[in-house]
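Posting for a labmate who doesn't have an account.
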Amino acid sequence: MSKNTVGIIDIVKPNSIAEDLGWLPGDEIISVNGHAMSDVIDYQYYTAEEFIKVMVRRGAQSAEFDIEKDIDLDLGVTFKDTLFDGVRTCGAKCVFCFVDQLPKGLRKPLYLKDDDFRLSFLHSNFVTLANVDEDDLNRIVEQRLSPLYVSVHATNTALRSDMLGREAPSILDQIRTLARGNITLHTQIVLCRGINDSKELDRTVNELAQQYPTVKSIAIVPAGLTEHRRNRTSIEPIDIQYAQEILDRVKRWQRLYKAALGTRLVWAADEFYLCAKRRIPVTDAYERFPQIGNGIGLVRKFMDSAYRALPQMQQIESKKTIRVSIATGKLAGPILGKWAESANSRRVHISVYPIKNTLFGKTVTVAGLMSGRDIIEQLSPKSLGDVVAIPSVALRDGKFVDDVTLKEVEEAIRVKILPASTSPRVFAGQLRRLIESELTGL
């Protein structure tokens, strides 16, 4: 990492130490106790002392401040960027890389391939650790950057290097180094049919399980495949039979590790259950959902929330029956449809419209990748009622993945849009507030 980076102050909090010292937005923090700052983690780590010296630069002038404070008291600044020296990008060319399968014309941030262990700590991003060196590993241990989320894919180093499209260090050696610092890891295996499954999957799961409790969870998720994939390595999409086979193996592993380690340790992505047409496991089977952000247990969370939302839906009142349409991905369509049937009342009627993904292709079925154009084309001919709910996960800064804005969709379909929570309980509250305010006259 660069040693001459600085943290640029964005906000100085009122009544803070920074305000008392006269710091201003735009000032640059150069060092703390002589340590250069690479990111906000460095800043937080080195300022967690009673006595600190902070070098600050404003324009061409620099000044050093001697500060005495409680160890856990923050100085009161936020920064323009959390990573002062920029994001570490991925140097790999993974055979399953989703970014390489994207069409042109999408939101620019989608094309950034980050592989930065700091973002793993800060935001639970999955990283390969293929671009870290010994100094990075020592820093992770020293600063206790735990937990981390690690993409393993295979513990066979040769196979892993082939999958990553670059020479990769031994992931098991790296895990052992982190284990000495009591770092917790949540791992994932992006399963590529015919590549890292079968005996290689057995080997990977077994060798990761041997690293428990450093490895606290193992997620098996299917590779995302779009119609724009150009990599010559063939990867077949999962089907019912394949999904059932994977779930049977996961079930056996869970029984084994539950008995031996006290945890199921291995979980399959929700997509496997939906594809296999299997029942979603009960809440307790997910052991507090260690990888909920990776699509492990989202459906169960939805189902639990849906049950608790029913009384709220029944309590919604209006002058007439409110017709609500929900746009969602093909994957969640059937489950959301069943909930809508149970939630309908004489005051609220919900229709669910699964959106076919023409931007990425039929194999991409998640709501988060719905495009604005697909929504416009497929909903415009429909009788949509009073309001259209669109999962908020499909939006970033008011835009869909294809850069179409929420306002543009609303104007095209000529119906009010409600960016909705994926939690039925929260959605019920959103809908009730909307009806009580803007839709009162309906």
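Reply:
Got it, the structure tokens are right above this. The longest strand covers residues 51-58.
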